[in-house]
Automatic annotation (TrEMBL):
Protein name (record): Aspartokinase
Statement: the UniProt record of this protein carries the keyword Nucleotide-binding: yes
Gene giving rise to this polypeptide: lysCA
Species in which this protein is naturally found: Petrocella atlantisensis
This protein's UniProt keywords: Amino-acid biosynthesis, ATP-binding, Diaminopimelate biosynthesis, Kinase, Lysine biosynthesis, Nucleotide-binding, Transferase
Binding site for substrate: 46, 73
CDD domains given in the database record: AAK_AKii-LysC-BS (cd04261), ACT_AK-LysC-DapG-like_2 (cd04923), ACT_AKii-LysC-BS-like_1 (cd04913)
Enzyme type, top EC level: transferase
Binding site for ATP: 6-9, 172-173, 178, 183, 208-209
C-alpha cells in the first residue's frame, strides 16, 4: 500500500514534535507500506519569514518572496529525514524541483500543472521513506514558486493523485473537521464525514483546516482524504464524494476576516456603470465577491462589494483612475469587516434557514451589512469585531454542537 501523509506546521514545530511524527511514519513503514510524507514549515516560520522580508523591503517582489518562504519547508524535510535516520531508518528529503512538481509561473499563488514524480518512485523502490516539501513548486523558468498560504495540503493531495496512493492523510493540530473552528466555538462537534462540495465551501469561506484547492483537487481526482490529529489517536474526518452518515441540514459555520468592503458612492444611475466598474476589476485580476447596489436617488446610486484584503487598495486606486468614465462621488475601503457563512448541502431543499440565521445575529445584537446566498451556503458581512460572537450565535441557533 502507498500512503501519503501530510503534517502541518504545528505538528513539526520543534524537535519533540518532529520525532513524534517520525515515529508515526515508522509505524506505517514497518507494516511494509510505501510512505511519502509532505511537510509544512515548522511552527510560525512562514509568518516570521514574511515579517522579516518586510524589514528589508517595503514592496518585496513575489519571486524573491517565494525563494525566501520555501526555505521553511526545506528545513522541515531535511530535519525529518535526519530524525528518521537517527531512529535507524532510510529516508530521503526532496524539494519540488527534485520531486518534479511543476506549476504555472505566477509566483505567490502558482497552480500545480504536472507532477512527474519519477524520483519519488525511484526512492520508494530503494525502500526509502520519501519526505517532500509542501507548498512549493517549480515553474518553466526553473524558478521556485509557492502555492499560496496553506498550500501544503494541496501538495499532498496532488502527490496522492499522481502516485495513485491508497491513502491520503492530513495531520493537523485538531482532531478533524468540526462544525466550526474548535478554537472559536467550544461546543463545535467533529464531523465523521463531509462531502467534497461542503468541505470546498467551508474551506473557501475561511475554514483553514484544509487549503481550498486541495479539496478541489481531491474531488477532481477522487482522492479520499482523512483529516486527523498528529498528537492523538482519535479517528479523524473523512472527506469524500458522498456522505453515508445521515444527511444534515447544515454542516458548519466558517468565518473569513481577510476581506475588505469597497464602497463606490454616488455613481450616475444609468445603464452600463456597473458593467464598467466590474470590467475594471476583471482587467486588474481582482476577484469580486458579494455585491450590493443601493436603490437610486437623485439620479445616483451606490455600489459596494467585497474583495480579498490584499487587493483592497489596488482596487481603490484602479477605480479612482477611472473617475471620469465612472463619474462617482467617492470611493472608500473598509478593512474591518468579516464574512460569516453557514454551509450545508441540505439547505437547498429547506426554507427558513436564512431567517433563522438573521434571527441569531439579531438576538446577539449584531448588524448585518451585506448578504449573499447560494444553494449550499449563506454568507453575511458584519463588523470584524463581532466575528467570534456571530459564529457562536449561529452555531448555537442551529444546534450544531448536538
Ligand atoms: P496545519 O498547520 O496543520 O496546516 P492549519 O492551522 O492550517 O493547520 O489548520 C488547522 C486549524 O484550522 C485549526 O487549528 C483550527 O483552528 C482551524 N479551523 C478553522 N475551521 C475549522 C473547522 N471547521 N474544523 C477544524 N479546524 C478548523
Ligand atoms: N508553510 C506554508 C504556510 O504557512 C504552507 C502550509 O502551511 O501549508 O502557508
Ligand atoms: Mg494548513
Amino acid at each position: 500500500m502507498l500512503i501519503v501523509k501530510k503534517f502541518g506546521g504545528s505538528s513539526v514545530a520543534n524537535r519533540d514534535r518532529v520525532f513524534n511524527v517520525a515515529r508515526r511514519i515508522i509505524e506505517d513503514y514497518d507494516q511494509g507500506h510505501d510512505v511519502v510524507v509532505v511537510l509544512s514549515a515548522q511552527g510560525d516560520t512562514t509568518d516570521e519569514l514574511l515579517a522579516k522580508a518586510k524589514t528589508y523591503c517595503s514592496l518585496p517582489s513575489k519571486r524573491e518572496m517565494d525563494m525566501l518562504l520555501t526555505t521553511g519547508e526545506q528545513i522541515s524535510v531535511s530535519l525529518m529525514a535526519l530524525a528518521l535516520q537517527e531512529l535507524g531508518y532510510n529516508a530521503v528529503s526532496l524539494n519540488a524541483t527534485q520531486a518534479g512538481m511543476y506549476t504555472s509561473s505566477s509566483y505567490g499563488n502558482a497552480r500545480l500543472k504536472n507532477i512527474t514524480g519519477e524520483r519519488i518512485t525511484e526512492e520508494l523502490d530503494r525502500k526509502n521513506i520519501v519526505i517532500v516539501t509542501g507548498f512549493q513548486g517549480v515553474n518553466r523558468h526553473d524558478d521556485i514558486t509557492t502555492l499560496g498560504r496553506g498550500g501544503s495540503d494541496t501538495t499532498a493531495v496532488a502527490l496522492a493523485a499522481a502516485l495513485n496512493a491508497d491513502k491520503c492523510e492530513i495531520y493537523t493540530d485538531v482532531e478533524g473537521v468540526y462544525t466550526a473552528d474548535p478554537r472559536v466555538v467550544k461546543t463545535a462537534k467533529k464531523l465523521q464525514e463531509i462531502t467534497y462540495d461542503e468541505m470546498l465551501e467551508l474551506a473557501s469561506l475561511g475554514a483553514k483546516v484544509l487549503h481550498n484547492r486541495s479539496v478541489e483537487m481531491a474531488k477532481k481526482y477522487g482522492v479520499e482524504l482523512v483529516v486527523r490529529s498528529s498528537l492523538t489517536r482519535a479517528e479523524g474526518t473523512v472527506v469524500k464524494e458522498e456522505s453515508t452518515v445521515e444527511k444534515m441540514l447544515v454542516s458548519g459555520v466558517a468565518a473569513d476576516k481577510n476581506i475588505a468592503r469597497i464602497a463606490v458612492v454616488g455613481i450616475e444611475d444609468e445603464p452600463g456603470k456597473a458593467f464598467k466598474l466590474f470590467r475594471i476589476m476583471a482587467k486588474e485580476n481582482i476577484n469580486v465577491d458579494i455585491i450590493l447596489q443601493s436603490i437610486g436617488r437623485n439620479n445616483t446610486k451606490d455600489i459596494s462589494f467585497t474583495v480579498d484584503i490584499n487587493d483592497a487598495y489596488h482596487a481603490k486606486e484602479a477605480i479612482e483612475a477611472h473617475q471620469e468614465a465612472l463619474s462617482f462621488e467617492s470611493v472608500s475601503v473598509d478593512e474591518h469587516v468579516a464574512k460569516v457563512s453557514l454551509v450545508g448541502a441540505g439547505m437547498q431543499s429547506n426554507t427558513g434557514v436564512a431567517s433563522k440565521m438573521f434571527e441569531a445575529l439579531y438576538d446577539a445584537g449584531i448588524n448585518i451589512k451585506m448578504i449573499s446566498t447560494s444553494e449550499i451556503k449563506i454568507s453575511l458581512l458584519i463588523d470584524e469585531r463581532y466575528t467570534d460572537e456571530a459564529v457562536n450565535a449561529i452555531h448555537e441557533e442551529f444546534s450544531l454542537g448536538q
